[in-house]
C-alpha cells in the first residue's frame, strides 16, 4: 500500500501538520498555475489560495465524498503533477484521489493513465484579445475576472475598454471604480494610471482606455488589438443591426452582448446551449442574469420530471437603472426610490428561457419584484411537473447534479437554515438551489434559486468569451451529464 493510500485511512493529523503540508503545497500550485494548470478539490479552486484556504477545501470534500480529504493524500499528487509534462487543464484533485484509492499500481502509473490526453500538449499559444465596450457594474466585474485569469490556459486577455469621456479626470475615476467596489470589495492587486497614454495598469495587465462615441469609428488595430472579441455591456444595442456597428471597426472579430438579444440573435446560457455557437455566429447574446440563474435548473428538472407549465417570480436587487429617490422615469414604477421600496416590474427571463431551451416555449410566465438590496437575487420556480416526485428525491437529484455533473459550474446546492442573500455575494455559479425551501406535492414543485446577479452572471459571460476564443480548459477527470446521475 502506498503512502497516499495509507493516508486515506489514518489522516486525523494535527492541525499544524495539515497547515504545514498546505504551506508546502502553495509554491507547487503556483508552478502549476504558471503552466496554465488550475487545480481544485471537488470544484473548490486552489488558485491564489492561502494555507487555510487549502485546509478548508479539504474539509469541503465531506459534501461529496462523505469524508474529509487530507493533505497527506493530495500533497504527493501535486508533487507528481509538477514533475509531469502537462498541457493546460483544470484538474480535480479530489476526484483523482478518490479514483486512485480503488486502483492498483503506483501513483505515477495512475496519473500517466488518467492524464494521458494532456501529457505533452503544453504548446505556446497567443491569447485572444478582449475589448470591453462599456465599464459599468458588469463591465468592471468582467475586467476583474479577466485580469485575475490573465494567462490562464493561454486563453484570453483584456486589451481595451471603450467609454465616453467624462472630463479630464475620467481615467482616474474609472481606475478608482475598478479599485474599490462597495459590494464586491477591493480589487485584489495593484492598479496604476498612465495618464499620458490613457492606460490603466492592473496587476501587470495593460488596459488601453479608448474614448469614443460611435462604435464604428474606432480603429482598434492602431492600439495593437486584432481579431478581438468585443463584449458590449452597455445594453444600448440589443439587435443585430445595432451590434453589427462593432464589426465595422478594424480589429473586432466577434461581439458578445451582456443582455437578452432581440430578433434572430442566439441567446446563450453557458452549460446549456453554448455548443450551438458556430464559427458563423459573429454576434451572440449572453442572455440575462435571471435567465442564466434559472435555465440550468429548469433544464435538469425538465429532463428528469418533465415540466407542463410554470411561473417564475424573482426578488431582484435594485439596479443602476432605477432612481435613488422618487423622480421621473420612463419605466412603470421604476421612478420610485429603489432603496425604500419593493417595486413590482416585469421580466422577460421566463420567455427568454425558451431561446436556450426550445422545449419550454409557451410554458413559463414571469414577473419581478425589485427589492432594496444592492446585489444577489432569488428566483422562485413554481412548476407543474409531468411526473410525481418528492421533496427528498428532487433535492438529492439537484445536490448530485451540483457536485458531480458537467453543470457543476452553473448549479450549486445548499441546505442551511442560516443563509441569507449576502452569503451569496461573489458566487461564481449561475444559480444556487436552496434545498431547505423546496416544496413538493405530487406533480407540484416549488424551487428557490439564489443567484449573484452581478458576479455569477459575469462568470457565465467569461465562460462564453473563452468558448468563442477556443480557450475553455480540458477538465480532468471528465464530468458526467446530469442524465447519467
UniProtKB/TrEMBL annotation:
Domain of life: Bacteria
GO molecular function annotations of the record: NAD binding; oxidoreductase activity, acting on the aldehyde or oxo group of donors, NAD or NADP as acceptor
Pfam short name (any one): Gp_dh_C
UniProt-listed InterPro entries: GlycerAld/Erythrose_P_DH, GlycerAld_3-P_DH_AS, GlycerAld_3-P_DH_cat, GlycerAld_3-P_DH_NAD(P)-bd, NAD(P)-bd_dom_sf
Keyword Membrane: no
SUPFAM superfamilies, per the entry: Glyceraldehyde-3-phosphate dehydrogenase-like, C-terminal domain (SSF55347), NAD(P)-binding Rossmann-fold domains (SSF51735)
Domain Glyceraldehyde 3-phosphate dehydrogenase NAD(P) binding: 128-289
Keywords: Oxidoreductase
PANTHER family with a match to the protein in the record: GLYCERALDEHYDE 3-PHOSPHATE DEHYDROGENASE NAD(P) BINDING DOMAIN-CONTAINING PROTEIN (PTHR43454:SF1), GLYCERALDEHYDE-3-PHOSPHATE DEHYDROGENASE (PTHR43454)
NCBIfam families in the record: PRK08289.1
Full protein name: Glyceraldehyde-3-phosphate dehydrogenase
Species this chain originates from: Corynebacterium phocae
Amino acid at each position: 500500500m502506498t503512502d497516499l493510500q495509507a493516508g486515506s485511512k489514518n489522516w486525523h493529523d494535527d492541525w499544524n501538520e495539515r497547515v504545514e503540508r498546505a504551506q508546502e503545497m502553495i509554491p507547487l500550485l503556483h508552478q502549476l498555475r504558471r503552466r496554465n494548470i488550475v487545480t481544485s478539490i471537488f470544484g473548490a479552486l486552489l488558485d491564489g489560495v492561502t494555507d487555510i484556504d487549502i485546509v478548508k477545501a479539504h474539509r469541503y470534500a465531506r459534501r461529496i465524498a462523505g469524508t474529509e480529504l487530507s493533505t497527506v493524500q493530495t500533497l504527493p499528487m501535486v508533487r507528481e503533477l509538477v514533475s509531469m509534462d502537462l498541457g493546460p487543464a483544470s484538474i480535480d484533485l479530489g476526484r483523482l484521489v478518490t479514483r486512485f484509492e480503488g486502483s492498483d499500481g503506483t501513483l505515477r502509473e495512475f496519473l500517466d493513465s488518467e492524464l494521458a490526453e494532456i501529457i505533452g500538449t503544453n504548446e505556446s499559444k497567443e491569447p485572444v484579445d478582449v475589448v470591453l465596450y462599456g465599464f459599468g457594474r458588469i463591465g468592471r466585474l468582467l475586467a476583474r475576472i479577466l485580469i485575475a485569469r490573465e494567462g490562464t490556459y493561454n486563453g484570453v486577455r483584456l486589451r481595451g475598454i471603450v467609454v465616453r469621456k467624462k472630463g479630464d479626470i475620467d481615467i482616474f475615476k474609472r481606475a478608482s471604480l475598478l479599485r474599490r467596489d462597495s459590494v464586491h470589495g477591493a480589487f485584489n492587486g495593484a492598479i496604476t494610471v498612465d495618464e499620458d497614454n490613457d492606460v490603466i495598469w492592473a496587476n501587470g495587465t495593460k488596459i488601453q482606455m479608448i474614448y469614443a462615441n460611435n462604435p464604428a469609428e474606432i480603429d482598434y488595430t492602431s492600439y495593437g488589438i486584432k481579431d478581438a472579441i468585443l463584449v458590449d455591456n452597455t445594453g444600448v444595442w440589443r439587435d443585430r443591426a445595432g451590434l453589427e456597428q462593432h464589426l465595422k471597426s478594424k480589429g473586432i472579430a466577434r461581439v458578445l452582448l451582456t443582455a437578452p438579444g432581440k430578433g434572430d440573435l442566439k441567446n446563450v446560457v453557458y452549460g446549456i446551449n453554448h455548443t450551438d455557437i458556430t464559427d458563423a455566429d459573429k454576434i451572440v447574446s449572453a442572455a440575462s442574469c435571471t435567465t442564466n440563474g434559472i435555465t440550468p435548473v429548469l433544464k435538469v428538472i425538465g429532463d428528469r420530471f418533465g415540466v407542463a407549465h410554470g411561473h417564475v417570480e424573482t426578488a431582484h436587487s435594485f439596479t443602476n437603472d432605477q432612481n435613488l429617490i422618487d423622480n421621473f422615469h420612463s419605466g412603470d414604477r421604476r421612478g420610485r426610490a429603489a432603496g425604500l421600496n419593493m417595486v413590482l416590474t416585469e421580466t422577460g427571463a421566463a420567455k427568454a428561457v425558451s431561446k436556450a431551451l426550445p422545449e419550454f416555449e409557451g410554458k413559463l410566465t414571469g414577473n419581478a419584484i425589485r427589492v432594496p438590496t444592492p446585489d444577489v437575487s432569488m428566483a422562485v420556480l413554481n412548476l407543474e411537473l409531468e411526473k410525481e416526485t418528492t421533496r427528498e428525491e428532487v433535492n438529492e437529484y439537484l445536490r448530485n447534479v451540483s457536485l458531480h455533473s458537467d453543470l457543476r459550474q452553473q448549479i450549486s446546492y445548499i441546505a442551511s437554515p442560516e443563509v441569507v442573500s449576502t452569503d451569496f455575494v461573489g458566487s461564481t455559479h449561475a444559480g444556487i438551489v436552496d434545498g431547505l425551501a423546496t416544496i413538493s406535492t405530487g406533480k407540484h414543485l416549488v424551487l428557490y434559486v439564489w443567484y449573484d446577479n452581478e458576479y455569477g452572471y459575469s462568470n457565465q459571460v467569461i465562460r462564453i468569451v473563452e468558448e468563442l476564443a477556443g480557450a475553455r480548459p480540458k477538465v480532468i477527470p471528465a464530468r458526467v451529464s446530469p442524465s447519467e446521475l
